[in-house]
Amino acid sequence: MSVQRPGAAEFVPAGADLTGLREAAPACRGCELWEPATQVVFSAGSPTARLALVGEQPGDQEDRRGVPFVGPAGKLLQRAVAEAGIDVATTYVTNAVKHFRFTQEAPGKRRIHASPDAGHVTACRPWLSAELAVVDPEVVVCLGATAAKALLPKDFRVTKHRGQVLRLSTTKGEKTFLGTIHPSAVLRVPEADRDAAYAGLVADLRTAAAALS
């Protein structure tokens, strides 16, 4: 069951540019994840990107460094983006949830990733909505189920609808959206199936690239 949380709306400065949003985000108390996390992990990439990549939440390395997609999944994503013919320098990367959710047996022990629940996604959505409105990308790629829940229709399922181009209304007009697997999902499949999973991710990203007008 999802827990009701106050949400980030009161912490998002109205009319702020991307720098203003990044500067305000560390003060967010819209859910409880801020307290155990090392820091907020907001976004990276071009503020005028034509294509945005939205993931789930920062992982352990991202939480420590304060930058999204710098761990193993991020490196795989960068490789897949390049293979899909997308210039990494012209993309914007962020997450549906801005703090690392994890479990830990004791201080000093390894921190184990725990997926954010629907309440975390809802609480953090004002940040995601604000940053996408500022960047105003033509195409938004949702990486994994959590990002899809944040931005795509409720009946969207990654396993069923991945790679399909969707035209959805936003505050900046109609935009193109596409859902695919999270790069961490490629790393989790058995090694014998990893090449096929990776190829599927690249194929979906090529579809997103082709959707750029």
Describe the 3D structure.
The protein has 213 residues and is α/β, with parallel strands linked by helices. It has one domain (9-210): Uracil-DNA Glycosylase, subunit E (3-Layer(aba) Sandwich). The chain has helices at 18-24, 60-65, 72-83, 118-135, 145-151, 158-161, 183-188, 191-210, and strands at 43-45, 51-55, 91-95, 102-103, 112-113, 139-143, 165-170, 173-180. The strands form 2 sheets. It has a 6-stranded mixed sheet, with helices on both faces. α4 (118-135) crosses α5 (145-151). It is globular.
SSE layout:
Blueprint: H1 18-24, E1 43-45, E2 51-55, H2 60-65, H3 72-83, E3 91-95, E4 102-103, E5 112-113, H4 118-135, E6 139-143, H5 145-151, H6 158-161, E7 165-170, E8 173-180, H7 183-188, H8 191-210
Parallel strand pairs: 2-3, 2-6, 6-8
Antiparallel strand pairs: 1-3, 4-5, 7-8
Features:
two-stranded antiparallel ribbon; alpha/beta; 8 strands; single chain; 213 residues; Uracil-DNA Glycosylase, subunit E; six-stranded mixed sheet; globular
In short:
The chain has helices at 18-24, 60-65, 72-83, 118-135, 145-151, 158-161, 183-188, 191-210; strands spanning 43-45, 51-55, 91-95, 102-103, 112-113, 139-143, 165-170, 173-180. The chain has 213 residues and is an alpha/beta fold.
